[in-house]
Amino acid sequence: MRRAGAGQLLLLVTLLIAASACALCLGTPYVPPHRLPGALMDADSTLAGIVVTELRVPRLVLALVAGACLGAAGLVLQEALRNPLAVPEMLGVSSGAALGVAAPLVLSLSLPAAVQPLLALGGAALGGGLTLLAAGLGRSPSAVLLTGAAVAAALQAALLVLMVMADQLDLQLIYRYLLGSLSARTWDDVTGLWPWLLVAVPALVLCAPVLSVLRLGDEDAEALGVRVLRARLAALAIAVVLIAPVTAVCGPVAWVGFLAPHLARWFNPGTDAVRWLPWSAAWGAVVVAVADVPARLALAPVETPVGAWTALVGVPAGVALLRLGRRRPKAPRAAAGTGTASPRAQAAGEEAAPKVMSEEAR
């Protein structure tokens, strides 16, 4: 297990260093790696210093923060609903947040930039709330996923109606925003995320042990003292707080919340949500940082949305990891890290014990 963790950490650090070097050095103007420290020190005195410190560094930081939030939110949703396909894009959360930000733009409502996270938060809460209400407040995880797909489709239809109403200039802005883009982001966009992180990170720390219990099933979780419905609603609220501010700034960067948790599980099999959560956030950060390099440089001087690249790579890679993970032999684990088996496992063992004894007597 320690070797697997060390190998995973080495891979993450290598990818992060490579993506950071490409993000800070490549482009117009090109900054050689040996001149990068000088460009960072001469922030306002040279063209390279201004471009690196005012455009490339905040874009890299925003990619890391946004990816970490989306990766953690994806794991929270998948563990709370006990479904590896439960992602923000399938539950109406991302579509609702995008609708909350795009509607004032099309309706020509002049609102301050500080209000956009609140609009995204309201839209994400609306999408997630409609999903839970239509699915009976989350009593059936499978029903939540199916209902969420329908709610997401309805919200996307509302976005298409808004796009029809928009003029040509607003249409281009909305189209790029809906695909998820880090273009022209500054330090103001980065600093706007920190208040939300101060709320979400402590909630994540408190939520992770409960997610490990929910993984056992509703009956076993209730037997261990967890109120399943409240825990599931709290998990959705935490996911909304993580997703909405990122969507307000970057747009819905697609399928990061699907790929990052599967990468965390693949490199750390047989553990629980407490250990998967930091790895999922780290993988989400690296995925967005790596995807932003071809988004910025592949068709230069034209930039492509980073969400197109994360969807292009995230969906097939996530499905492949999901299928390969099912073929792995599953090691027996204790219930929620308490060192005791779950009530169902204990009952199964008690029923199987007489049969084994009788066979041995024969």
What does this entry look like structurally?
The model is unreliable at 331-362 (pLDDT under 50). The protein has helices at residues 2-25, 36-41, 47-81, 93-106, 116-134, 141-165, 168-179, 187-191, 194-214, 218-223, 228-250, 256-267, 273-297, 306-327, 343-361. The chain has 362 residues and is an all-alpha fold. Helix content is 74%, strand content 0%. It is globular, with a radius of gyration of 22 Å. The protein contains 15 helices and no strands.
Strand-residue proportion: under 5%
Name the quaternary structure.
single chain
Q: Count all strands and give the number.
A: 0
**Total of DSSP H or I helical runs spanning 4+ residues:** 15
Element-level helix/strand string = HHHHHHHHHHHHHHH
* Separation of the first and last Cα atoms: 41 Å
Radius of gyration: 22 Å
Poorly predicted runs: 331-362
Structural class designation: mainly alpha
Relative helix content: over 70%
Question: How would a textbook summarize the main sheet?
Answer: none
Structural shape: globular
The average pLDDT value, as a whole number, equals 84
Set down the secondary structure blueprint.
Blueprint: H1 2-25, H2 36-41, H3 47-81, H4 93-106, H5 116-134, H6 141-165, H7 168-179, H8 187-191, H9 194-214, H10 218-223, H11 228-250, H12 256-267, H13 273-297, H14 306-327, H15 343-361
Helix pairs in contact: 1-3, 1-13, 3-9, 3-11, 3-12, 3-13, 4-5, 4-6, 4-7, 4-11, 5-6, 5-11, 9-11, 12-13, 12-14, 13-14
